[in-house]
Amino acid sequence: MTMTWNDSVPIYRQLQQRVVAMILDGALNEGDPLPSVRQVAADFQINPLTVSKAYQELVDEQLVEKRRGLGMFVIEGAREALLKSERERFLREEWPVLFARLQRLGLDLKTLMREAPTEKGNADKEEKS
Question: Which residue intervals define the domain HTH gntR-type in the entry (predicted)?
């Protein structure tokens, strides 16, 4: 886990968001252990209480569980729950703004799909350069 801290967001929140991103990206799977509080604190030179607070947020969100004497583990269904909530948040908060901008710019789905980056498209563009 590599981190660059943003001064406008509490470190525990940034750490919590990083773990959420790792679950969504598949870097942490259901049943996987989280790095120990001590290890994370040492790696990032932050207070162990900060790491504990981030991990507690994840427990409160029912994404990880504490296993006495073993550590913290990603619970079953965590990724699906995160995907559901992130999709709902996107549709509620980001999509209306994005849709309005697309309309202002006169962009339609056909144009967007044609311009969307793809593995093949990126290779073709590199060959033309």
Answer: 9-77
Asked if 22 and 28 touch (Cβ cutoff 8 Å), the reply is yes
Say which DSSP state 33 is in.
B
The DSSP symbol for 116 reads S
Instruction: Give the integer Cα–Cα distance in Å for 4 and 127.
Output: 34
Task: Report in angstroms the alpha-carbon separations of 127 from 102, 119, 121, 122, 124.
Answer: 30, 13, 10, 9, 5
In the chain, the domains with their CATH numbers are 11-76 (1.10.10.10), 79-128 (no CATH)
pTM of the model: 0.75
Whole-angstrom distance, CA of residue 90 vs CA of residue 85: 9
Ranges of H-type helices in 8-108: 11-25, 37-44, 48-60, 78-89, 95-105
Low-confidence ranges of the chain (pLDDT < 70): 1-2, 119-129
